[in-house]
Amino acid sequence: MSDDGFIETTDLTKVYKFGAVEVVALHGVTLSISRGHLVGVTGASGSGKSTLMNLLGGLDTPSSGSIRVAGRLISDLSKRELALYRRNMVGMIFQSFNLVNAYTALENVALPLLFAGVAKKERQRRAAELLHAVGLEAREGHRPTELSGGEQQRVAIARALVNQPQILLADEPTGNLDSKTSRQIVETLADLNRNRGLTVVMISHEQDLLREFAHVMIRLQDGAVADRKVLRQNP
Amino acid sequence: MRIADYIEQACGNLWKKKLRTFLTTSGVVIGIGALVCMFAFGQGVQRNVTEQFNKLDLFNYINVYARGGDRRREHSHDPDEEGGPPVGGTVADANAPRLDSRFLEEVQKIEGVEAAFPELRFPAQIRLGDKEQFALVQVLSAAICRPMPLRAGRCYEVNEPKGLIISESLLRRLSVNEPSEAIGRPIETATLTLDFSLATLWRMVTSRGDQALPIARESHRFVITGVAERMPFGGMGDAYIQPEAAAGMRKLSLTSIWDFFQPASATTNYPSITVKVRSPKDVAPVKKELESRGFRTWALVEQLDEMRIGFLIMDMVLIAVGMIGVTVASLGIVNTMVMSILERYREIGIMKAVGATDGDVQRIFLFESGAIGLLGGVFGLVLGWAVSAIINEVVNALMSRQAAPRMEYFSFPWWLCLGAIAFSILVSLAAGIFPTRRAARVDPVVALRHD
């Protein structure tokens, strides 16, 4: 394993405040993820998995500690710089798909390109290409409510890839899917990791499925890294 | 994001919520329509007054008054003018410069003066055929009369001392509805004078109430040469005759209460004289010359600044009234945008998750409120124009019964049309600032969890 620290967190802490009450979601998380690895993150509910994912994806900022991606200090970026980081570096996939119901599958996939200032025709061309890649070319004009859970998640994967990111963050992408579809989705993400060299960080409760593909497994407990296992060496 | 994408997004989102967009835009349409109507009316009044003044060359006139015992002291602009009550016209000051026929001749020799005529009006009984009406007769020279717009006929010539121009409204009161029918018809003008002769007094005593006032009646025959469309000089006259014709008539001058107490022969001096100059730029030198000769003067052209302030105040009042609708409409926009943002809370989170900046999100919603403003502005302008046209037609229909000429009471200059649309967009954008800032500040983590 080439442990080059493509993604590095140092003493990462996130505290949420609800009035006078403070909830520590992450506490002193220090970890390093190599470029091109598929990292599985497991842990009980409330262990801080999603918080870690939001921090790595630049959706949230840490209370203390730092995040460095490709040598760049993400935790110090301004709101606008974080938006550009999300746009150009990261693709995110969520348990609840997070597709815009008012848009068609094609429009959902093309959405990140809209903010990147790509012309409409080019947006449509690239979105169609990705929908084809995930096997949904026949579903371009369908809205999310007309698609199955697996199809929606594949649309979400296509959307996450459309800006050609270097990191794919998947927050329980199989959480709302049956086991067969879950396997298909994980296999798709593993393919992307293998064939496109994407660094993938995936949260899942399905540890056995993750172990089949992950290079590294991280287990979080009470907001801290409880366990880190290297399963495979080469990306 | 590209501008075209903002526009497409805004239009697409508004189209998805057609009813709400329609209702919100309707509020703006009504607000802008009312504002446009009010403003167009203000502009119309301003334009009509200015045009009327220009058409009648009113900016080319100077009113001249004798200094001593002037009855129109309120028009004085002379800081040296002494106060005190009027004292019976020229009779009080024998040395004061007089406004008489000699002055009329002299004043026309001043450089820049085109004509001069006495400002003289008197009451008379006008008889046409078997109909008789009480009216005001104004003295107007042929030279001054010429630019006057006429419904029918022509202005009298200098060599037509018996020529008379009648107003269309008086003509209607005399039961003649077609102006051209009146041309060439004889008309009788009976003047009234105070007569304190012994014969009259004797008649008052012996008539046992049939003649209660010492008033004598004197008839003069004229021929109608023209029918006036609108009355110049504030529309004070119902009929016009030449100074030469008026000079030979015994009459009561309405410009002086003192004339009631003087025999007709004593009122040979005019209370005021109107001097017409060739162009407005001749007003100042002619005024100066007249003032140096001891007269007081007043010119409308010098009141332009005051008129402009008056128009400005009128516009402000009309705009203030119109702004009520716009304010209500802008609150509607705020409400719509807040609702839209609440409904699309999760969508905002998704947009941010895939790389939208706060600015992108704010601009998407600002374009939506701007689009409501654009639609509201365009259709508000159309509504304002349509309502103005209807009001204009109704008022003209009512006014035509009184023989008033047709007028456009509303004015829509190009800058008002563009300004209304621009203002509508600006107000809508301003109304959108608060909700769109809220949209921009949405925390994507919270929004993505939002159901």
* Total strands of chain A: 10
Tell me the name of the CATH homologous superfamily of chain A.
P-loop containing nucleotide triphosphate hydrolases
Distinct helical segment count of chain A:
7
The biggest beta sheet of chain B, please?
A: 6 strands, mixed, barrel
Q: What is the count of β-strands of chain B?
A: 11
The share of residues in extended strands of chain B comes to 15-25%
In total, the number of domains of chain A comes to 1
The CATH architecture of chain A would be: 3-Layer(aba) Sandwich
- Cα distance spanning the termini of chain B: 27 Å
Fraction of residues of chain B in helices? 40-55%
CATH topology annotation of chain A: Rossmann fold
Strand order of the largest sheet of chain B: 3-4-9-6-8-7
Which sequence of SSEs, written as H and E, runs from N to C of chain B? Answer: HHEHEEEHEEHHEHEEHEHEHHHHH
Silhouette of chain A: globular
The radius of gyration computed from the alpha-carbon positions of chain B, rounded to a whole number of angstroms, is 33 Å
How would you summarize this macromolecular structure in one to three sentences?
The complex is a heterodimer of chains A (235) and B (451). Chain A is α/β, with parallel strands linked by helices.
